[in-house]
Amino acid sequence: xxxxxxxxxxxxxxxxxxxxxxxxxxxxxxxxxxxxxxxxxxxxxxxxxxxxxxxxxxxxxxxxxxxxx
Length: 69
Hints:
Elements: H1 7-23, H2 28-68
Helix pairs in contact: 1-2
């Protein structure tokens, strides 16, 4: 799996995995592989959200400085 996929791609694939696992039509081995892929996708989503949060914090601080002047 690519580490450089977008948040949207990761969250869409994660939703697909959830549906597949909920249908219970997979072997235990396949379920384990999908679970591991899901964990990696969650990490990608969290990293992306943390990056966005950092940018928003930076913008907020910049705006606060500009309004104080």
